[in-house]
């Protein structure tokens, strides 16, 4: 029995029942694939369910305010995914009359849709022979064939895509693609896979060479930069605070945050108090300052680690309009800010 047949047979007996596997609607497949980029199923599933309830069709998503989309995305991270999702929904509705492209080539033209997502939609919805290659697929193929080419190199990207395209079941590409992703997610796991019950254990080269823990190979990324974030949490006597919308490119674009001061290192309370006296939201008014978290919160992003402190600033009145603390949960904020809001309990 060949690779694809063994894989699909395993899948038919072991697949998880997931809502996006009950449909070939390109909107729902696209939505699930975008949510599951860099997100595990157990975390992404509740978001998929709430998204499809709030935005059941691409038309509903297209007419939504970006702030509502970002608020629904809150906690998933990588917010560019949500912004691209919204942009693409509007493009599909306004330019394509609500009809998704039906080929891999045309799907690639959609903003936020790369090789993997285009392959998934094309195969699952339109039965096109387009092999998916994600982290799970890299792991399965690198181990089974003992491939040492780094998966995050241009050579590796081409090599694994070519191999996956050769292996895909030409008569049943949708089933094959879902099978190989599921196999990597639940059987050929990153750590401690149960190779004794694996249907490929007799033919898997990495298993027979005792190299399971060495594959796949990945080029180490540059060391993450440290940044020191100090958020100013204003609380006025009339129950207001200040949130600012992050403009421009970069992390958390169009999300809301408390006013921010970056420093070169962690600073003590007295030093910080002197530092902020000239801040435009404090200048000229009396205030009381206290540090909320004695232990720094380290928020890890892909290329930077944010060493974060929240400073509580009590004032009689704000010198800007501000918002009611009762309305603070209506704003889309990064998970770092959201966690603080939840624990601080305005």
UniProtKB/TrEMBL annotation:
<dbReference type="InterPro" id="IPR011257">
    <property type="entry name" value="DNA_glycosylase"/>
</dbReference>
<protein>
    <recommendedName>
        <fullName>Adenine DNA glycosylase</fullName>
        <ecNumber>3.2.2.31</ecNumber>
    </recommendedName>
</protein>
<dbReference type="InterPro" id="IPR000445">
    <property type="entry name" value="HhH_motif"/>
</dbReference>
<dbReference type="Pfam" id="PF00730">
    <property type="entry name" value="HhH-GPD"/>
</dbReference>
<dbReference type="InterPro" id="IPR015797">
    <property type="entry name" value="NUDIX_hydrolase-like_dom_sf"/>
</dbReference>
<dbReference type="GO" id="GO:0006284">
    <property type="term" value="P:base-excision repair"/>
</dbReference>
<dbReference type="InterPro" id="IPR003265">
    <property type="entry name" value="HhH-GPD_domain"/>
</dbReference>
<keyword id="KW-0408">Iron</keyword>
<dbReference type="GO" id="GO:0006298">
    <property type="term" value="P:mismatch repair"/>
</dbReference>
<keyword id="KW-0378">Hydrolase</keyword>
<dbReference type="InterPro" id="IPR044298">
    <property type="entry name" value="MIG/MutY"/>
</dbReference>
<dbReference type="Pfam" id="PF00633">
    <property type="entry name" value="HHH"/>
</dbReference>
<comment type="similarity">
    <text>Belongs to the Nth/MutY family.</text>
</comment>
<dbReference type="InterPro" id="IPR029119">
    <property type="entry name" value="MutY_C"/>
</dbReference>
<feature type="domain" description="HhH-GPD">
    <location>
        <begin position="35"/>
        <end position="186"/>
    </location>
</feature>
<dbReference type="GO" id="GO:0051539">
    <property type="term" value="F:4 iron, 4 sulfur cluster binding"/>
</dbReference>
<comment type="function">
    <text>Adenine glycosylase active on G-A mispairs. MutY also corrects error-prone DNA synthesis past GO lesions which are due to the oxidatively damaged form of guanine: 7,8-dihydro-8-oxoguanine (8-oxo-dGTP).</text>
</comment>
<dbReference type="GO" id="GO:0032357">
    <property type="term" value="F:oxidized purine DNA binding"/>
</dbReference>
<keyword id="KW-0234">DNA repair</keyword>
<dbReference type="GO" id="GO:0035485">
    <property type="term" value="F:adenine/guanine mispair binding"/>
</dbReference>
<dbReference type="Pfam" id="PF14815">
    <property type="entry name" value="NUDIX_4"/>
</dbReference>
<keyword id="KW-0411">Iron-sulfur</keyword>
<dbReference type="GO" id="GO:0034039">
    <property type="term" value="F:8-oxo-7,8-dihydroguanine DNA N-glycosylase activity"/>
</dbReference>
<dbReference type="InterPro" id="IPR023170">
    <property type="entry name" value="HhH_base_excis_C"/>
</dbReference>
<dbReference type="GO" id="GO:0000701">
    <property type="term" value="F:purine-specific mismatch base pair DNA N-glycosylase activity"/>
</dbReference>
<keyword id="KW-0326">Glycosidase</keyword>
<keyword id="KW-0227">DNA damage</keyword>
<dbReference type="InterPro" id="IPR005760">
    <property type="entry name" value="A/G_AdeGlyc_MutY"/>
</dbReference>
<dbReference type="GO" id="GO:0046872">
    <property type="term" value="F:metal ion binding"/>
</dbReference>
<keyword id="KW-0479">Metal-binding</keyword>
<keyword id="KW-0004">4Fe-4S</keyword>
